[in-house]
Automatic annotation (TrEMBL):
Organism superkingdom: Bacteria
Location relative to the cell: Cell membrane
GO molecular function, a single term: amino acid transmembrane transporter activity
Name of the molecule in the record: Homoserine/Threonine efflux protein
Length: 217
């Protein structure tokens, strides 16, 4: 029933997805910022919107990338190289701008957003998240069974798995940050270290993607 839909490398994919999800990138930092400013309820609603945006993004990438990857192996390698290099760039940029990002996280404005606004804002952060775009386009395809067919369906399935994991992880971040909001908000250095850690993880993942591109080429 599920032949051709669930890739054989699903366990390995789960590990890669969890690594990129827990790295404090734009979506995680936005959720933490909302939690620090407005508490756990707003952060969880933001996560819900974020995950919905990520699923829309993953589906769009699957529909566009899937047929190309199935037809041309060179496109598969090119996507890996572009994605790996961009992940490294995002990681370096996150480390360089960690102070600016930390300041933005503690400056969310004087009025708490409504439930609808929280979901809407989270949705757009999810759709426009560069880390997620690179993951869906460059990292995720490595775990698809190209020769098995149904590449687009496999990509959509893996995108859905990613979003479920992201909801659990980001929701946990939001709940923890909402609980420890006073502790986080009183020291920007803690937020800076969080952002730098996320940058380092993205650099490591980018290097891993490039190594995979070299060995598979």
């Amino acid at each position: 029933m599920f032949a051709g839909v669930i890739p054989t490398r699903l366990p390995e994919y789960l590990v890669a997805a969890i690594i990129i999800i827990i790295a404090p990138g734009p979506s995680v930092l936005f959720v933490i910022a909302r939690a620090v400013a407005w508490g756990r309820k707003i952060s969880v609603l933001t996560v819900a919107g974020n995950v919905a945006g990520s699923f829309v993004l993953s589906t769009l990438v699957a529909l566009g990338v899937g047929p190309i990857l199935q037809k041309w192996h060179i496109a598969y390698i090119a996507v890996q190289w572009a994605g790996g290099l961009y992940l490294i760039y995002l990681g370096v940029d996150a480390i360089r701008k960690r102070r600016i990002h930390a300041a933005d996280m503690t400056n969310q404005g004087p009025v708490a957003p409504t439930a609808r606004q929280s979901i809407r804002d989270g949705f757009w952060v999810g759709v426009l998240n560069p880390k997620a775009i690179v993951f869906f386009a460059a990292v995720l395809p490595q775990f698809v069974d190209i020769d098995g067919g149904h590449v687009t369906i496999q990509l959509v399935f893996l995108g859905l798995v990613f979003c479920v994991l992201a909801f659990i992880s980001d929701g946990t971040w939001g709940l923890l940050a909402g609980t420890a909001r006073a502790w986080l908000a009183t020291d920007n250095k803690r937020l800076e270290r969080l952002r730098a850690t996320g940058g380092l993880i993205m650099i490591i993942l980018g290097v891993a993607v490039l190594i995979s591109a070299v060995t598979s080429g």
